[in-house]
Amino acid sequence: AAMVQKYQSPVRVYKxxxxxxxxxxxxxxxxxxxxxxxxxxxxxxxxxxxxxxIHVIERRCKLDIDAPRLLKKIAGVDYVxxxxxxxxxxxxxxxxxxxxxxxxxxxxxxxxxxxYTVHPDNEDWTCxxxxxxxxxxxxxxxxxxxxxxAMKQYTSNIKKxxxxxxxxxxxxxxxxxxxxxxxxxxVACKSESSTSHPRRPVSPAINIxxxxxxxxxxxxxxxxxxxxxxxxxxxxxxxxxxxxxxKRYLGDLTPMxxxxxxxxxxxxxxxxxxxxxxxxxxxxxxxxxxxxxxKAREILCQSLTWRKQHQVDYILDTWNPPQVLQDYYAGxxxxxxxxxxxxxxxxxxxxxxxxxxxxxxxxxxxxYVLSINEEGLRRCEENTKxxxxxxxxxxxxxxxxxxxxxxxxxxxxxxxxxxxxVVEANYPETLGRLLILRAPRVFPVLWTLVSPxxxxxxxKKFLIYAGNDYQGPGGLLDYIDKEIIPDFLGGExxxxxxxxxxxxxxxxxxxxxxxxxxxxxxxxxxYQSASxxxxxxxxxxxxxxxxSSVITWDFDVCKGDIVFNIFHSKRAPQPPKKDSLGxxxxxxxxxxxxxxxxxxxxxGRDYSMVESPLICKEGESVQGSHVTRWPGFYILxxxxxxxxxxxxxxxxxxxDVLASLQVSSHKCKVMYYTEVIGSEDFRGSxxxxxxxxxxxxxxxxATTSSSxxxxxxxxxx
Length: 717
What we know:
Layout: E1 3-8, E2 12-14, H1 18-26, E3 38-48, E4 54-63, H2 69-75, E5 80-89, E6 94-101, E7 108-119, E8 122-136, H3 143-174, H4 190-196, H5 210-215, H6 219-226, H7 243-250, H8 255-271, H9 279-288, H10 293-309, H11 315-318, H12 323-328, E9 331-336, E10 342-346, H13 353-360, H14 362-387, E11 394-399, H15 410-426, E12 431-439, H16 443-450, H17 456-459, E13 462-466, H18 511-516, H19 522-526, E14 528-533, E15 538-544, E16 550-559, E17 562-569, H20 584-587, E18 608-609, E19 614-616, E20 621-627, E21 632-640, H21 654-661, E22 667-677, H22 686-691, E23 702-704, E24 711-716
Parallel strand pairs: 10-11, 11-12, 12-13
Antiparallel strand pairs: 1-8, 2-8, 3-4, 4-5, 5-6, 6-7, 7-8, 9-10, 14-22, 15-21, 16-20, 16-22, 17-18, 17-19, 17-21, 20-24, 23-24
Helix pairs in contact: 1-3, 8-9, 9-10, 13-14
């Protein structure tokens, strides 16, 4: 299989004139002790123009490739020969170098092109660039080995190239040579000198501020420091990347990584219509795919399309988060960590995720998270300038104090998963570290639900502390300066992050309102509604095969008061017959209403109650779970709750009388959702379910838990 490997270097800037660089470069021939594999070179061809401006020289170079002996034996060669053709133009001040392999040229094709040119903004500096391609057609079945050796040799020599020039520059300096005059045309021919003479002094270099050249900054940094932070840094010559800029703003990259970045960026410039992402963002996508340029290009293109569709580029300037978010979303930016990364603090345990989803819909929540990520990108850029080194990711501190079953509300978890998925796809490699603090015992459950959606690279950056462990050795102080540890974690720093708390029910929007906004919310798809009548409860059957599964439920009492029960039976109830409703078929105007428990069944003989009955009032939301002890059939039941007469007088209370006058008082309505989670998903964290409601109790108006089995049901008003 033919594989073509390509390499493109950044621009390397030498702060020396072209002529001096040429004097240094010439010293590499005929052999160079600094490149051990460069054994010898012979001149094959040479041409000089009459005025000495053009000098073309072709050499045959003998290389001793550092390859395994076995491979050399198979190939039957000790040395590899390359042809190198150098074209020097002293008038234009350029050197172009073309090289290709002579040995194995029918099996392997190697082409390299290098150039030394004058820096466009300073005629006393020199730019160097190189590109190459390697195409292995066949090599005795060792194609991939040869490719690896060739790439390794090549990239290690790239690093050496700069050292060699610098070594010979130093040697020249020691010999007292610090200036080489420029080429001037022979005086004999007048006409030529007059035309080409004015070329020399004319140059844009004069624009460069005096101070800048002294400090030896390159053009890009001068423009950067003077421009306002919001402007993108000015591009290098011809919008190429230069090596110093990469080191300063993007970090230490290997030659191949630099090459991938340059090639992907070039491809975007040529093909992409819209706004081209910043270099550090392109680099994130490459890192996310281990610098596989094709895979990175694919995810980057998908992300660019997504950004355009959702107008993400404008989100910070044009979108104002709804007040509910500003009041109840318990997260915010807070200084930076010890590495200079922006720090985001999220008090997840204090946040009413369910309330937020019900009040806002999932879209607004997602949009908010996107705006947080966009702000994160902006802060990384800012910190890169402030700290003088590349900072491309942020640190997230998540405080789980208060986490409980309410956070396991499935629509909430599903919304969270979708948000994680969108963020993973469009903001890869932005999370530098995730510190999870005060993890309660219920945490493993949530973690199991969420972790499959998180990329392996990302997962390695998670640190999880239970209880107050974060205060001990290896804790928070290793990552965050003492001065900025937030007050709610026992630090001295006032933290502006909102406290969170329960979103008032009055802010919830009905399914209809959310529908009108064209925002499809989970509630319509995963909730079912049921009607409950006096004498006709609604029942749902759940069959459990594996004992110690977990049945979870989540329901809202939309109308009326009900009693919620959960029963177990060893035998299957008969499927409800049409006429089993009997008289009720008149009273139930449709509505989902199913009875499963046979009238002849007796409690305690045919079926048993596994939870204490729970009375739920109109407008309440209830969540809970039951760890099943036995296989068999479980029945969840919502039953009409009839008010007892007032105990003291035995006379009906006024509101009871009024209630009975309303025809609909015999009908209740619930919206419910149930799910069974296999025990293996809980990884032995059963006990966590028992205690899970405790942390939220100060937020929740009423919390009930029955100790009779491992269960907790939460009610929030």
